[in-house]
Amino acid sequence: MKEGTHPKYEKVTVTCICGNSFETRSTSSDLEVQICEKCHPFYTGKQRTVQKAGRIEKFHKKYGTEEESEETEESDV
Fold first, then answer.
1. Residues 6+ apart with CB under 8 A from 47
2. pLDDT at 59 over 80
3. pLDDT-based confidence at 70, cuts 50/70/90?
4. How far is it, in rounded angstroms, from Cα 72 to Cα 74?
5. 1 falls within a domain
6. Does residue 34 or residue 75 have the better pLDDT?
7. pTM assigned to the model
8. Which of 8, 22, 27, 69 is the most exposed place for a label (fewest CB within 10 A)?
């Protein structure tokens, strides 16, 4: 093998904005991430209802709700 072709993997600290930190190996220096396994909704089981509510409201605004369609059918009869 040629000398000097492989990068040096050094221990670095990965820090999340939630405060969690852990060590790993990388060619980069210390890393900062926005989301980790301690605060990610998939791993914690906690869904962010704020994001869901916005999506649901957007869906109902775009396609209408079932309640609105039932009210219009009753008024037509």
1. 41
2. yes
3. low
4. 5
5. no
6. 34
7. 0.47
8. 8
Q: How far apart are CA 43 and CA 50, in angstroms?
A: 18
Helices (H), the chain: 41-44, 49-63, 66-76
Q: Any residues with CB less than 8 A from the CB of 9 and at least 6 apart, and which? A: 25, 26, 27
Q: Which DSSP letter does residue 10 get?
A: E
Give the range of the structural domain holding residue 30, as residue numbers without chain letter: 8-46
Tally of domains within the chain: 2
pLDDT at 11 (0 to 100): 92
Task: Tell whether 40 and 64 lie within a shared domain.
Answer: no
The DSSP 8-state label assigned to residue 28 in this structure reads S
Q: What average pLDDT does the segment 44-52 reach?
A: 59
- What is the model's pLDDT at position 5? 87
Per-residue tokens: 8:
């040096």
